[in-house]
Each structure stands twice: as structure tokens, then as C-alpha cells.
Amino acid sequence: MGEPTVEELEALGLYDPAEPHAPAKLELLRYLIELGASAQDLAAHRDGLPGLASVLAIRGGSSLTLAEAAARSGIDEAKLLELSRAAGFPAPGPEDRVFTPQFGDLAAGMAAAEGIFGEDAVLQLVRVMGSAMARIADAMVSAFLVNVEPGLSEDDPVGLDVARANASAAALLPMLPQALDVLLRQHLLPARRSSLGAAAERGYEKRPMCVGFVDLVGSTALALGITTAELGALLTQFEQVSSDVVTGAGGRVVKLIGDAVLFAHADQRAACEIALTLTQRLAAHPMIPPVRAGLAGGEVMLRDGDVFGPVVNLAARVAAAAEAGEVLAPAELAAAAALRSRPLPPRQLKGFAEPVELCLMLPTGSGR
User: Fold this and answer.
1) Diameter of the chain by CA atoms?
2) Quick check: is 159 in a domain?
3) Last residue of a domain, one of 161, 189, 217
4) DSSP letter assigned to residue 47
5) Report field, pTM of the whole predicted structure over 0.85
6) What are the C-alpha distances in Å from 260 to residues 285, 292, 293, 320, 359?
7) Which of 14, 19, 11, 13 is nearest to 33 (CA)?
8) I want to staple 28 with a disulfide (CB 3.0 to 4.6 A). Which of 99, 113, 160, 224 is the partner?
9) 158 and 211 share a domain?
10) What pairing do the DSSP bridges indicate for beta strands 291-303 and 327-330?
11) Does residue 196 belong to any structural domain of this protein?
């Protein structure tokens, strides 16, 4: 099928020579057609034509139906749909063209991996990868919308400049797989460890660790008094400082939860030092409000890059009991860390039957 003609574009309701900015609209349509857009593509994206430029580059060819993707991958439709759902995508209709050609190839590889890891393990890995990729994709789109598009759309009535910028940004995609491969390998090296069969017996991994929660104090009230852009900049600074301090001390950022960070370290003293350093660093920051921190140590459950169990719950409750600028830890952890601390009266923490003996961790050189 050839390129859509002007008459066909008019018939599809995509172009009206009498409308304002008609020449610019026709130039946009022709630009998208040059990139490979079909009449079906143009009609499907009529309400967001500038963004179609990135769609064409990202999908790397014509989209496939479920049946077509299954035929390409050599696996049955039910298996492909199961992998697709695990990756975080809704079930498509029989005629919906939502699969890229590469997804069919990936599905074939994942099916082959079941011979090594087993079906349940592969599906769980796909869920984790899908969740991670969804976050990366959303971050990339957000970066474009915040940093690129606003400067283009002011004098661009039909979005031609935005379309060109979308195509330019999408042209950088070939670098992403290499970056992800390098980062994955770099993270796998320190992550390698042996469970000696214990994890397989229990169905999960369990390790002694120290976990810490650090969260902003009064962030809800603060958000009501500043603009969305200011809040976004503040949270970005919080995440950057938190990540730098945690990773710089050999810890791991388990997850960032908006105005809070959960981190872990195998060493109790190091974990306490991270919380103290982070609290001090953020207290001196000109943008970020005060923070509070809570720690707990013991055996935690590790699964899919996250940490679970009573120790994690305790750290969260200890953090909630802290005042602005304070780092609290159970007395046993404070003693094991061998850092300056001051005992506090036992606290009744939510979810715990007995009061918990806590200590206020003191910065080195503190006279408190």
C-alpha cells in the first residue's frame, strides 16, 4: 500500500485545508509518513500526532496482533499472553496490534529459559523486569515532557517541532540496551552470593541485614505550599543525596518511596553511620526539609530485589517514632554498632505487643 494522498488524509478527517495552520499540519503529516506512518497509524494517533514520531521509532516495525506475535515466536497464544501479562501489559483484543516484533522474539527466549529456572521462576523474573522497565520508560517520558517539550510547543501550533524532537530522542534508544547490559553486569558482580541451598528449601532467601528508613518530616504540608515543579526538584535532590550517601558507604538503596528511602547494609555500624550522615547532610541542605530515621537489624527476607519481614516493619515503626533530625535504633542494634548513643524510655510501637527499648544515635563528636 502506497503513502496516503492529501485526498485520503482529508477523507480520514486528518487534514482540512481550510483549518488554521493547514500548511503546517500537512507538513507534520508528511513528516510522519516519511518516518513510516501508515494511514492506520495516523488515524489511531489523530489526537497525539507529534508523539507518533517516537512510536514509529520505538516499535521498530509494524505492530503485531497476538496471533501474529505467537506465530513469530513459535509459542502458543496462551503462553505469549501469560508472559505479556507478567510483563505488565493488559490483555489485547484479537485484532489489537500492540506487540512489537521484538516482543515475540523475547517471548521465545523466555520460554526457553523455563528449562533452566522453571516456569514459575521465569514468570516472576518477567514481572520484576517488566516493573523495572515500566519505571525506566516512565522516567524517560517524564524527562522529555519536563525538559524538552515545553521549550518547543510555544511557537509550534501543530506540534511539528515536537514530532522532530520525539524522533531525535527515540534515535538514542539503541544506546539503552547497551547501558542496561553494562549496569546489570556491574550490579550482578556484588550481588552474587551463595545460599547453600537454604533459599531453595524455603522458597525465598533470608539474610542477616540492617535496614533503615529515612523520610522527610512535614512533606505533606510542604507540598501544599509550593508548586509542583518545586516539589519535583526537592524530591529529586532528596533522592540524589540519599543515593550518594547510601551507595558511597557500601549500602544499597532498596527503594525510594517519594519522600522516603529504604536502604540496607550487611554491617550494623555502617548502617547507623549512613543514617547519621544522611540526616546531617540533609539538615544542611538549602532546599530539603528535616528528615528522621529509624533502623533495625536481624534476619530479613529478600525477594525480587526487595526486603520483607518483621525487621523491616520494625525499622519503619522506629522511624515513625523519631522527631525531626533524630536517628533512632533498638538498644540491641545501638550496642552492636558501638557508636555514641543515648538510651530512651521504652516506646510502644504500633503493631508490636511489647514496648521497644530505643536509643538515640548521636553524631561523632556530639555532646548531646
Assistant:
1) 82
2) yes
3) 189
4) T
5) no
6) 16, 10, 10, 11, 21
7) 14
8) 160
9) no
10) parallel
11) no
**What is the span of the domain harbouring residue 45?**
1-189
Q: Tell me, letter by letter, the H, E, C secondary structure of 306-320.
A: EEECHHHHHHHHHHH
> Residues 27-45: pLDDT tens digits?
888 888 888 888 888 888 8
Q: What sign for the dihedral angle of Cα 120, 122, 125, 127?
A: negative
3-state helix, strand, coil split of the chain in percent (to 5) is 55, 15, 30
Judge if 226 and 174 occupy the same domain.
no
Predicted pLDDT at 323: 93
Residue finishing a domain among 158, 189, 220? 189
Residue 97, amino acid: R
Measured in whole angstroms, the distance separating CA 304 from the mean position of its chain's CA atoms is: 14
Q: Which residues of 260-285 are buried (b: 16+ CB within 10 A; e: fewer)?
A: bbbbbbebbeebbbbbbbbbbebeee
pLDDT grade for 61, boundaries at 50, 70 and 90: low
For 158-205, write each residue's pLDDT tens digit. 888 888 888 888 888 778 888 888 888 887 777 766 554 555 545 667
Residue 93 falls inside a structural domain: yes
CA-CA distance, 42 to 144, in Å (whole number)?
Answer: 22
With 0-12 / 13-18 / 19 or more C-beta atoms within 10 angstroms meaning exposed / middle / buried, residue 135 is exposed
Gap between the Cα atoms of 70 and 79, Å rounded: 8
Residue found under cell 533524630: 326
Q: Which three cell numbers stand for residue 263?
A: 536502604
Residue type, 209: M
> pLDDT (tens digit, 9 = 90+) per residue, 267-284?
999 999 999 999 999 888
For the four alpha carbons of 310, 315, 318 and 319, in that order, the dihedral sign comes to negative
